[in-house]
Amino acid sequence: MITLYHRPNTRSTRFVFLLEELAAPYTLKLVTTRTRDGGGAVDPANPHPHGKVPAISDDGVLVFESSAIALYLTDRFPQNRLGPLAGEPGRGAYLSWLAYYSGVMEPAFLCKFMNVTVPRATAGWVALEEMLPVLIDRLSQGPYLLGGNFSAVDVLYGTSFALFANSPLLPKSPVIEAYVKRILERPGYARAMAKAA
Ligand SMILES: N[C@@H](CCC(=O)N[C@@H](CS)C(=O)NCC(=O)O)C(=O)O
Description:
The chain has 197 residues and is of the alpha+beta class. The chain is built from seven helices and four strands. It has a four-stranded mixed beta sheet, covered by helices on one side. Helix 1 (13-22) runs parallel beside helix 2, helix 2 runs antiparallel to helix 3 (91-113) and helix 5 crosses helix 6 (174-184). The radius of gyration is 17 Å and the shape is globular. The mean pLDDT is 96. The site of glutathione has 11 residues, from loops.
């Protein structure tokens, strides 16, 4: 049984969404975390090494970091086919977009929103302005990041774009807007929102 260490309105919410889409058995363990305003506290019940969310425990096996959790869960619960398995077509793309999420997309977003200039060629990621056309091009061929099939990477990217949908710092893109709508309209998302709040 999967235990998801969760705090509402954080990065762990999207894993309620993924677990719903996977139709996996899980329980939510609500924990406290430190918060942006300097409040909150690390919860001793949370096994994440930095007291962050998300983290999962699978009968005592701890997995943390969003990309690793997504991969672990889709390998562990393959029945709804939300991530190509090793040896299947699309596995390479799946792994690449998972790693790109943590290694490029999140840092690019954070640099943009914190007004940090990305050092060209030395940072392991690129500026948002260089990243977005790559994703828009990919999604134009879509409808999903892996092509025709919704997968766990769409949970990560779709919910991230949704978070910044109204920010003036994120250039408007009909392709991204349609993508976010497609992801958030899924019944699994509605179920997750009801459970995660
Ligand atoms: N790289 C981590 C980031 C996790 C993360 O920073 N989560 C935030 C909530 S959205 C958190 O727990 N913050 C509390 C803290 O940093 O102590 C992942 O993708 O899983």
